[in-house]
Amino acid sequence: MSAEFDIAETLDVKGASCPMPVVKTKSAVDGLDAGEVLEVLATDPGSMSDLDGWADGTEGVELLDQTEGDDVYKHYVRKTE
Amino acid sequence: MSTDTPDASADDAPTDDAPTDDAPSRAELAARVDELEEALAEATADDGGKKMSIIATKGTLDMAYPPLILASTAAAFGYEVTVFHTFWGLDILHEERSKNLQLSSVGNPNMPVPNAVAALPGMDRVTTKMMERRISDNDTATIEELLETSLDMGVEFQACQMTIDLMDYDEDNFYDGVTTGVGAATALQDMAEADIQLLV
Prior knowledge:
The structure holds two protein chains of two kinds. Chain A is of the alpha+beta class. Helices cover 28% and strands 37% of the residues of chain A. In chain A, strands 1-2-4-3 form a four-stranded mixed sheet, with helices on one face. The longest helix of chain B is centred in the N-terminal third of the chain and has 21 residues, at 26-46. Chain B is elongated, with a radius of gyration of 29 Å. The chains are: A alpha+beta, B alpha/beta. Chain A: This is UPF0033 domain-containing protein. Chain A: InterPro entries: TusA-like (IPR001455), TusA-like_sf (IPR036868). Chain A: It comes from Halorubrum ezzemoulense DSM 17463.
């Protein structure tokens, strides 16, 4: 799954709950260069909807994929600009 | 007779264009349009970013969370966020008091004990401890963490000057980065400019 993108950085927010997965993703994306992909590992089931909504409502980011397995939710966010 | 009418309208036409005293010329109108478009561009550039304004009035442990969660999340969305703290909402900004916010056992029908028991001395401490344990067990961010994170993300926290004086708080006891010396007019201005306004 993750092989589809070159991952520039991985953010581990396992254990953290709302609003931290979104807040920390935003901070991590700020540190990327345009075009780079951030992998986010979360255990908060709400992160599926929240990161989707965040990416949708935020300029300069694109949610490439979200996967679920082994109680870990993985999100792939590309910084577009 | 039939020629009179076209003549009259031909006379009228130039008269419509000619008087510059009461009707603006095409050039003047074009200049005015340019001016307005410029003003509009300026206005939209100023308001380009999305803004959120929250008024935080409560200082119980449960009521301290919503403004901070929404503020930090909105900042993650790129909103320019202002949170105006007044009355017991000031305790959220008070470095010492924010770590010791209490939960009220009375008046909340969702509490597992009847009000008559909840009103007993020490019960607020018991329910607060229960909630703090849950917060810790669930890895829910603490008020302090949320506040520090929000400050890092550029959220502006304002402490209402009137209630600082009323509660006799020392401005030095607020977290670094908290704005003091502001009042209702500042909050109102923020609300007027904001896309989202909330009173908590």
